[in-house]
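Exercise 7b. C-alpha coordinates:
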Protein backbone atom coordinates (compact mmCIF):
# COMPACT_ATOMS: atom_id res chain seq x y z
CA UNK A 1 0.00 0.00 0.00
CA UNK A 2 1.27 3.46 -0.86
CA UNK A 3 2.01 5.93 1.88
CA UNK A 4 -0.52 8.74 2.25
CA UNK A 5 0.59 12.35 2.66
CA UNK A 6 -1.33 15.04 4.55
CA UNK A 7 -0.92 18.30 2.60
CA UNK A 8 -1.68 21.93 3.46
CA UNK A 9 -4.68 22.94 1.34
CA UNK A 10 -3.03 26.23 0.30
CA UNK A 11 -0.24 24.22 -1.35
CA UNK A 12 -2.85 22.43 -3.46
CA UNK A 13 -4.13 25.75 -4.82
CA UNK A 14 -7.00 26.34 -2.39
CA UNK A 15 -7.42 30.02 -1.44
CA UNK A 16 -7.56 29.34 2.31
CA UNK A 17 -4.67 31.37 3.71
CA UNK A 18 -5.34 34.19 6.19
CA UNK A 19 -5.09 36.67 3.30
CA UNK A 20 -7.53 34.76 1.11
CA UNK A 21 -4.81 33.45 -1.18
CA UNK A 22 -3.30 30.10 -2.08
CA UNK A 23 0.40 29.25 -2.36
CA UNK A 24 0.30 26.45 -4.93
CA UNK A 25 3.25 24.10 -4.90
CA UNK A 26 4.30 23.54 -8.49
CA UNK A 27 6.28 20.32 -8.55
CA UNK A 28 5.83 17.38 -10.95
CA UNK A 29 5.61 14.89 -8.08
CA UNK A 30 2.44 16.55 -6.77
CA UNK A 31 0.49 15.51 -9.90
CA UNK A 32 1.94 11.99 -9.65
CA UNK A 33 0.92 11.68 -5.99
CA UNK A 34 -2.51 13.14 -6.73
CA UNK A 35 -3.06 10.59 -9.54
CA UNK A 36 -1.97 7.80 -7.18
CA UNK A 37 -4.51 8.95 -4.58
CA UNK A 38 -1.84 9.62 -1.96
CA UNK A 39 -2.73 13.22 -1.06
CA UNK A 40 -5.04 14.10 1.81
CA UNK A 41 -5.71 17.84 1.87
CA UNK A 42 -6.57 19.98 4.90
CA UNK A 43 -6.48 23.58 5.99
CA UNK A 44 -6.30 23.10 9.77
CA UNK A 45 -7.58 26.60 10.52
CA UNK A 46 -10.62 26.24 8.24
CA UNK A 47 -11.34 22.81 9.77
CA UNK A 48 -11.59 24.63 13.11
CA UNK A 49 -14.14 27.10 11.73
CA UNK A 50 -11.82 30.04 11.07
CA UNK A 51 -12.82 32.27 8.16
CA UNK A 52 -11.05 33.39 5.00
CA UNK A 53 -9.78 36.01 5.03
CA UNK A 54 -8.85 36.30 8.68
CA UNK A 55 -6.53 38.45 10.74
CA UNK A 56 -2.88 37.33 10.67
CA UNK A 57 -1.91 35.22 13.69
CA UNK A 58 1.41 34.31 15.29
CA UNK A 59 2.52 32.33 18.31
CA UNK A 60 3.14 35.00 20.96
CA UNK A 61 6.44 35.78 22.64
CA UNK A 62 8.70 33.77 20.32
CA UNK A 63 7.19 30.52 21.58
CA UNK A 64 6.61 27.34 19.53
CA UNK A 65 3.77 25.01 18.65
CA UNK A 66 5.02 22.53 21.23
CA UNK A 67 4.65 25.19 23.92
CA UNK A 68 1.11 25.96 22.74
CA UNK A 69 0.24 22.23 22.94
CA UNK A 70 1.69 22.13 26.46
CA UNK A 71 -0.48 25.07 27.54
CA UNK A 72 2.55 27.33 28.01
CA UNK A 73 2.00 29.70 25.05
CA UNK A 74 -0.78 31.39 23.11
CA UNK A 75 -1.62 32.12 19.48
CA UNK A 76 -2.76 35.70 18.95
CA UNK A 77 -4.05 37.68 16.02
CA UNK A 78 -2.65 41.03 14.94
CA UNK A 79 -5.81 42.51 16.51
CA UNK A 80 -4.75 41.06 19.89
CA UNK A 81 -7.50 38.42 19.90
CA UNK A 82 -6.45 35.10 21.46
CA UNK A 83 -7.08 32.27 18.97
CA UNK A 84 -5.24 29.55 20.87
CA UNK A 85 -8.33 27.35 21.20
CA UNK A 86 -8.98 27.52 17.45
CA UNK A 87 -5.40 26.53 16.69
CA UNK A 88 -5.54 23.65 19.18
CA UNK A 89 -8.75 22.41 17.55
CA UNK A 90 -7.14 22.83 14.12
CA UNK A 91 -4.21 20.64 15.21
CA UNK A 92 -6.56 18.05 16.70
CA UNK A 93 -8.56 17.92 13.45
CA UNK A 94 -5.41 17.50 11.34
CA UNK A 95 -4.13 14.67 13.56
CA UNK A 96 -7.54 12.96 13.44
CA UNK A 97 -7.68 13.20 9.63
CA UNK A 98 -4.10 11.96 9.27
CA UNK A 99 -4.86 8.97 11.50
CA UNK A 100 -8.14 8.18 9.75
CA UNK A 101 -6.53 8.39 6.28
CA UNK A 102 -3.39 6.49 7.30
CA UNK A 103 -0.97 9.35 6.57
CA UNK A 104 2.62 8.62 7.50
CA UNK A 105 3.90 11.93 6.15
CA UNK A 106 2.82 15.57 6.04
CA UNK A 107 3.85 18.27 3.57
CA UNK A 108 3.09 21.66 5.12
CA UNK A 109 3.47 25.34 4.27
CA UNK A 110 6.24 27.03 6.20
CA UNK A 111 5.85 30.14 8.35
CA UNK A 112 2.31 29.41 9.47
CA UNK A 113 1.54 29.36 13.21
CA UNK A 114 -0.33 26.16 12.39
CA UNK A 115 1.61 24.36 9.63
CA UNK A 116 5.11 25.87 9.92
CA UNK A 117 7.73 23.18 10.36
CA UNK A 118 11.04 24.76 9.37
CA UNK A 119 10.27 28.22 10.64
CA UNK A 120 7.51 30.27 12.21
CA UNK A 121 7.26 33.97 12.95
CA UNK A 122 8.36 35.30 16.34
CA UNK A 123 5.03 36.71 17.50
CA UNK A 124 5.88 40.37 16.98
CA UNK A 125 4.18 40.69 13.54
CA UNK A 126 7.40 42.29 12.29
CA UNK A 127 8.26 39.59 9.74
CA UNK A 128 11.05 38.13 11.91
CA UNK A 129 11.39 34.39 11.48
CA UNK A 130 12.61 31.84 13.97
CA UNK A 131 13.22 28.10 13.83
CA UNK A 132 10.28 26.14 15.16
CA UNK A 133 7.03 24.30 14.53
CA UNK A 134 3.51 25.60 14.31
CA UNK A 135 0.80 24.00 16.45
CA UNK A 136 -0.42 21.50 13.83
CA UNK A 137 3.11 20.54 12.76
CA UNK A 138 4.06 19.95 16.41
CA UNK A 139 0.93 17.84 17.01
CA UNK A 140 1.56 15.73 13.90
CA UNK A 141 5.18 15.15 14.90
CA UNK A 142 4.07 14.15 18.40
CA UNK A 143 1.85 11.51 16.74
CA UNK A 144 4.82 10.07 14.86
CA UNK A 145 3.94 11.57 11.49
CA UNK A 146 7.00 12.78 9.59
CA UNK A 147 6.56 16.45 8.72
CA UNK A 148 8.25 18.14 5.78
CA UNK A 149 8.16 21.78 4.68
CA UNK A 150 7.85 22.79 1.04
CA UNK A 151 11.61 23.40 0.95
CA UNK A 152 12.11 19.74 1.92
CA UNK A 153 10.04 18.15 -0.85
CA UNK A 154 13.08 16.43 -2.35
CA UNK A 155 13.79 14.87 1.03
CA UNK A 156 10.16 13.70 1.25
CA UNK A 157 10.42 12.14 -2.24
CA UNK A 158 13.55 10.27 -1.13
CA UNK A 159 11.93 9.19 2.16
CA UNK A 160 8.85 7.79 0.42
CA UNK A 161 11.02 5.93 -2.08
CA UNK A 162 12.84 4.07 0.72
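Sequence design result:
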Amino acid sequence: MQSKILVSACLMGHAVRYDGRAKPLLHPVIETWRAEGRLVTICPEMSAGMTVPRSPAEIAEAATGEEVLAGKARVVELTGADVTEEFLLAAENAVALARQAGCRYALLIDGSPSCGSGFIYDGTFSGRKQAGNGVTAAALKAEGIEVFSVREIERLIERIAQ
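Instructor comment: Residues 4-161 form one domain. Strands lie at 4-8, 39-42, 57-59, 75-77, 103-108, 119-121, 129-131, 146-149.
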